[in-house]
Design a protein that fits this description.
The chain is an alpha/beta fold. About 35% of the residues lie in helices and about 15% in strands. Helix 8 links the parallel strand 9 and strand 10. Helix 4 runs parallel beside helix 5. The two termini are about 45 Å apart.
């Protein structure tokens, strides 16, 4: 007789053997209730010497708690330092991971890492979220935000979800703005199809004396009219790797660069997401994003602000073949779509070998 196990078929005899094996392995181990279930922070790299770059870059937006960074975080931070990144602001969309992430940053004493804490709108996405739950989360955020490594409050509105969650999102957003004022911290805001309501709350809070320590709109991707509205409200605008997308995908973001004053413009990698697509090498371009790739976004931003030609980007027609643009494309053979930990043929620069 066979039993269905998530789409596979397994005999009862095999299941019995597996159960006996697991029991033998677990024999003598303490029960789960005796085990400390508190997440143990993963120690990061030791302090890395400061780079000799003349201009420092602050990456306003790295999801360092993402599991894609668990394997080789030390090398990733070293590559960021070598690229001229002097500081990164770590964001966390899961409130349950904020405390372990902050503990790991404290234990590492890494000069590169700072943190932003808060209730991301993704957390307030259920009808079961109550006023009491939101208040509890804000109180927990207040405790974490007193740590010296915390440099901002992370919050926002996401109106792409059902109407039932909007009220709780607005309450959490408003309470965190008050918290930022009390702790004298800036605010990182996420606007997801909620521009009108967010601007209303921001305007009302500014009249009450809040947001005097600054705030920025994270990974702005709105229309020029929306951008002007935020600029009129003294907002800073943060742009990410979308600027590097070739053709019409990145053109709107590059067009907005010229509208943003230099003292209001911020940059973030949004790693491990939105890998810049103006990286020549296929394997790096198709892999996870890293803070070291922020220099590509800065190149695109600089060209857009000065109205210069964009730096060379891979030919979209050859992207699926892994070929490079220009004269190199004729000499490139079709490459397999597998990823290698390090390229023995010299296709990857040594600093980018994973």
């Amino acid at each position: 007789m066979y039993m269905d196990r998530g789409g596979s078929r397994e005999g009862k005899k095999s299941l019995r053997k597996n159960k006996i094996t697991i029991n033998a392995i677990n024999k003598g181990k303490p029960e789960l209730k005796d085990v400390d279930a508190t997440p143990t922070p993963c120690p990061l790299a030791p302090p890395i010497p400061r780079s000799g770059h003349a201009e420092a870059v602050i990456d306003v937006g790295v999801h360092l708690s993402n599991r894609q960074f668990d394997a080789n975080q030390t090398k990733m931070l070293q590559r960021a330092r070598d690229s001229g990144v002097e500081a990164i602001v770590t964001l966390c969309t899961d409130i349950e991971k904020q405390k372990p992430t902050l503990q790991a940053a404290v234990l590492s004493e890494h000069p590169l890492i700072t943190c932003a804490v808060g209730i991301h709108p993704n957390m307030v996405s259920s009808h079961r979220i109550s006023d009491k739950q939101v208040t509890t989360w804000v109180n927990e955020t207040a405790v974490l935000a007193k740590n010296p490594l915390v440099v901002a409050i992370d919050c926002g509105l996401d109106f792409s979800r059902e109407y039932g969650t909007w009220h709780m999102q607005e309450k959490a957003f408003s309470m965190q703005i008050d918290l930022a004022t009390a702790l004298q911290l800036p605010v990182i805001m996420h606007d997801i199809k909620a521009t009108e309501r967010m601007c209303e709350i921001i305007a009302a809070k500014r009249l009450e004396g809040h947001l005097q320590y600054g705030y920025c709109i994270f990974d702005f991707a709105g229309a020029p009219e929306t951008l002007q509205t935020y600029l009129d409200l003294d907002a800073h605008i943060m742009l990410a790797g979308h600027l590097c997308d070739p053709g019409p995908l990145g053109e709107p973001g590059r067009a907005l660069c010229a509208m943003i004053p230099e003292n209001r413009l911020m940059i973030g990698s949004n790693a491990p997401f939105t890998t810049p697509q103006n990286i020549e090498d296929y394997y790096v371009r198709d892999a996870r994003n890293e803070p070291s790739n922020i220099v590509r976004a800065i190149m695109s931003m600089s060209c857009a602000c000065s109205h210069d030609a964009m730096p060379p980007t891979p030919d979209p027609a050859l992207r699926h073949q892994g070929c490079r643009s220009g004269s190199q494309s004729a000499r490139c053979a079709r490459r397999p779509r597998r990823r290698r930990p390090c390229d023995d043929q010299g296709l990857l620069p040594p600093a980018l070998c994973r």
